[in-house]
Amino acid sequence: MARGEYLGEFEQLTLLAAARLGDDAYGMTIRGEIAQRTGRQVTIGAVYATLDRLVSKGLLRVSLPDPAAAGPQARRFFRLTRAGVTALERARDQQARMWSGLDLSRILRR
Amino acid sequence: MRIEPAPPRLARLIARWALPEPERSEALVDLDAEYARRASGAGRAARGWYWRQALGSVPFGLIMRRRRRQRASGATSRTPITWSNDMLGDIRYAFRLLLRRPGFALAAIVTLGLGLGTTAAVTTVVHGVLLRPLPYGDPDRLVSVRETHRSWSSRGQSSYPDYVDWTRATSFEQVAGHTGGTVTMTGEGAAERVSIVEVTTNFFDALGVRPRIGRSFEPEDGVGDGPSVVLITDAFWRQRFGADPAIVGRTLRLNGQPIAVIGVLAPGFAFPPRGDVPIWAPLFPSQAQRERRYQHWLDVIGLLAPGVTARQARDELAAIVQRAGGEDPRWHGTAGIAIQPLRDMMVGDIRPALLVLLGATVLVLLIAVSNVAGLLLARATARGREFGVRLALGATRVRVYRQILTEAFVIAAAGAAAGLLVARGMLSVLVAGIPARQLAAMPHLADLSFDWRVVGVAMALAALAAVGLGAAPARRALGAGGAALAASARGPGGSRRDGASRALVLAEIALAVVLLTGATLLARSFGHLMSTSPGFEPRGLVTFRMTLPPQPYSSASHVTTAHGDLLERFARMPGVERVATINQLPLTGTGNTGGFVVAGDGGGGDRSALLRTISDGYLEVQDLPLENGRAFDGERPESPRVVIVNRALADAVFPQGGAVGERIEFTAFLPGVLFEIVGVVGNEQFDAIDSAMAPVVYFPYSQSPERSLSVIARTSLPPATVLESIRGEVQSFDAGLPIFAERTMASILSESRPVFLRRYLAFVISVFAATTVLLAAVGLYGLLAGSVAARAREIGIRQALGATRGDVLRMVIGQGFRLALAGAALGIALALALSRFLESLLFGVTAADPLTFVSVPLLLLSVALAACWVPARRALDVEPATALRME
Fold first, then answer.
1. pLDDT tens digits, residue range B74-115?
2. Residues of B in contact with A34 (CB under 8 A)
3. Which end is more exposed in chain B, N or C (fewer Cβ atoms within 10 Å of the end residue's Cβ)?
4. In terms of CA atoms, which chain B residue is nearest residue A77?
5. From A46, A48, A72, residue closest to B29, measured CB to CB
6. 3-class secondary structure, B674
């Protein structure tokens, strides 16, 4: 967050999915995690494009594939960097502060 | 190992194309695995999922590629402006715009798809029938050779002695003959009557066709008493012999004789003049056929020697025929030769129909393109403000121009894709509308498949359309230029904004008038044709053919007795009201003609007539009126020979009346035998329904029995029921007697080429015309609706200044109606100029049929009026106060 950027919504979802999956975080599992938990239709292309951006922002680290391996073993796994963890925490805190003391039902009642 | 279900191929290709490496290889592996998991449950849902993944990934793939390029070139956040970057951007922007206005996009794409698809389908048919080379060795040198006669109508067949003379001509590499026949095939199950083609042994060499298995005919196969070998078609080989690879040497029992199969013709082999015939045998003319120059029965084709023209070949053969005329002046004195390319002979009468179809298609495409151009124009006008802002903010004109062209291109590409779907469907509909009999008689139509070259044509058309579609809106947007910004702030003015749109709508109306005129003329021709009486009532007539073989019906009296017994049995059957036989059926256009002279009419000249042999009772079955004299009634074979003639013959030969009692002589084939005319009957049509009634001579069956004949029965029961019980009756009479070619007279009529061609064209072009009328109406509606919206302020002012509702209505409707009038006038002029190309297909109406030329424009004007009505009503709803506040 060196440049003071904020996380987009889908970036946030992607980081969270990667965090939940731990050692098993790669394109397809992240897609599955988001789709399953949010019920949203997520395309693999969207996930990859976001992963790509998050890596370039330094929020995710890519484990380079084993060059000797082929097929599924050749895929890249993603892991949160320290900056990634910080970004998520910051996003959560910001949200929490925005939510605190807010009762939406009051708006409707008026 | 279990085979995993494969994802949809096209979707997988898209996914592969969409994503860059390294994501590509990962994603494909994982997507396939996930697909396999999902497909094990509900397959369809899995396909949908895969498609969404593939298509949904496309834009992200583009984004990733672009970002990586930027990173690689060290660029920061500003994008260096490159052509390809802008292209992608333009395309994405165009997609987004189209998705934001799905109604507009759908209208444009469907319209364009209809136009392009129709064009592609019809082009495929025309290409297949008229342009694709015939599937023979050297199709350009193949010709049909026909003998023509000045004094009587002839189907151009030649006699065997003539054919033998021609084989010596030096203009030809090969001259070959073919003729059709039927044989009784026995062996498995009931006796079966099958069609065969008898050909001279060099026939396949002339065509340049080799069998796929076995050998072709050799000259020795044509020597002996009768055929001992046959070639069979691929279809027959599969169906009858289960595609037995050891087919060569197996036998078929034909007419009681074992005949060896020596080969199987290639799967694609077809010879349309003979239709779809399974067995091909060497030709064995009878002794009489070998000797008689006046018996014309053999169809002849030739392979021209290299470098020889059809004219040279014709001159050589004509000289040969003239020389033969010295020997036999009765026939050859008036003979001539006609040579035409084999293809022309096959498609001669379809060509005008196909060209008309193609012309109609071009009109449909033009209207579709004008319609989409109109839509784009309207949009460009509506977006004038957007373009004005962009230009004002420093966008170059080239940049804006490219953006508009890209949009047009995206629409054209989507239209082309939709067109492919339309073309596929339309092609099968076009071919399905053709009866099997007609299909077999036209080259290539049966196996017409989607041609990828046609896809190329569609794509090229789409690209052209894109440029054409984009150009006008682009000019409008740029022409409006900076002014658009200023103008749009006040709302678009109404003066010159829609000159191009008006021209497009006017053109659409004119083209719709042309198509509707053509459709009406053809429909009226078809109606006339259907109300043309063939001289008898075809409904309720069931027909079939049968042949009494030499065993056991060895003599003429055997044949006559069996004929009489069979007719008696048929007549007793329930549901059969009347029954009779004739050697060749009406409306089929086949059968003999013969030349005759009137006895005592010294030098009255040759006459010719169709020759038909009928049983007693035939006139009653057909309900032909007996106008003079008597019908046949049990004529005895040994009594003096008698004939009945038809009205056409009586009028032509005995114009002053009194045909009954006259005697005629058939000088060519029965010299010295006089036939007394005992009756004159009404005309019936033996040829195509659109031909003139020809002179006919009827002979009584008892005096000239034939083995091969058509039974014709009038019944009130369903044809299938009657034919079923007749088949049983024949079986119980003689189990070895096959009946074949079962048809109703109504189907003979409706499947005949003149009826079928006009019905088909009238139908297809009516569908085209309806589509174009709709498109033109939508175009007019769109123009007026846009104009009313744009002129809301003006209308408001007019109303404020005291214009009545009637004035407003008149103004809006008048604007549309004037345009429609101009379009209709232009359409009439175009239709008058073009309708003469229809002339050969018209029947009972002229190309300038007044009724058509009055009613079609009237119909179109009323449609136009309806299209004007809605926008006009909307103009009435303009609130003067609101309109003025728009300022």
1. 655 444 444 455 667 777 777 777 777 777 788 888 888 888
2. none
3. N
4. B26
5. A72
6. strand
